[in-house]
TrEMBL record:
Domain of life (superkingdom): Bacteria
Name of the protein: Predicted dehydrogenase
Domain annotation Gfo/Idh/MocA-like oxidoreductase N-terminal: ranges: 6-137
Residue ranges occupied by any GFO/IDH/MocA-like oxidoreductase domain in the UniProt entry: 145-276
Organism whose genome encodes this protein: Lutibacter flavus
GO MF term list: nucleotide binding
Family annotation (InterPro entries): Gfo/Idh/MocA-like_OxRdtase_N, Gfo/Idh/MocA_oxidoreduct, GFO_IDH_MocA-like_dom, NAD(P)-bd_dom_sf
Amino acid sequence: MNSKIKLGIIGGGGDSLIGVLHRIASFMNDNYEIVGAVFNPVWEDNINFAKKIDLDTSRIYPDFDTFIAKETALPKDKRIEVVSVLTPNFLHFPMAKKLIENGFHVICEKPLTTTYEEAEILEKSLKKSNTIFAVTYTYTGYPMVRQMREMIKNGEIGTIQKVDIQYYQGWINTIIHDKNLRNTIWRLDPKKGGISCCIGDIGTHAFNMAEYLTGLEVKSLLADLNYLYEDNTLDIDGTVLIRYSENVKGVIRASQIATGEENGLQVKIYGTKGGLKWEQENPNFLYLLSEDKPMQVYKPGHSYNSELSLNGTKLPPGHPEGIFDSMANIYLGVAKAIRNEPYDSSEFPVMNDGVRGMKFIEQCVNSHKNGNSWVQL
């Protein structure tokens, strides 16, 4: 029986949504044990949180550099094997790079870095190492997203003609209209969030979903972004026209000022023989559209689903699988890779997915600044 993989966590303490999502996901398939962390740069908050979740505090470190120094000094069979980087965007690059260079496997939140240049450097560092690197584009872990991918790959909707992905949230609408309040949000601070807020945060999820599901690469794009106020330097809304090839086109619509919206990621992909629709807020329903048959509804856990979908399903049909299950499937794929077990290449997003995500973000900003012009990806 395999022993549990020793997991370290950087960031994600307190009431962090990302923190609790990763911690629960790591536990769900019984593959990981959290043995060390730096949850917060404030020592009192850091250590108190570790005590709150009942961790051994001997490996709760005051800062990232101490984490690296102490863990690498341990015998190989004792040290942390994989580290989840759950910090604000600007810390992803330096932390991930140092972890790779010191032989740790990495599970990194998206976006991968704050610039495409940093992403390329990180990719070169990984090629020199013998480590696993995953980027948590969480929604790729949903069983019905994986089913959608397999159906498209198997030609069940024919040749793709149109890809329409919308990701609408409304949370910044309660903040953006107050100048003092909007200056307190790290996602709206270019020093911490990078060159984009909306496209960098949720637009990159939509972009990744488009390429993950279709198997196609975006070739060029045209972006129209909205900043709303002159003193707000990062986009909070945007529409991006996409060209995959001469005859395959699409659109990505992302917004954080869609008043009243919660987490409205919606995917619609249309081919010559049919169409597929899926919504993140109702993730257990995948709709297959046809011109000559009634609409069909696919649900998780049934034998008619693909092996990839069923491998990511933990419960019998009728028991809803949600966001924790989705992230857990990514952690499961990483565990297989770390243990050199067979796994499907689509079980977790890799470094190249993160690099392409950064290129997408930068080219959206460039397209907008250049008068909403077409740019190559």
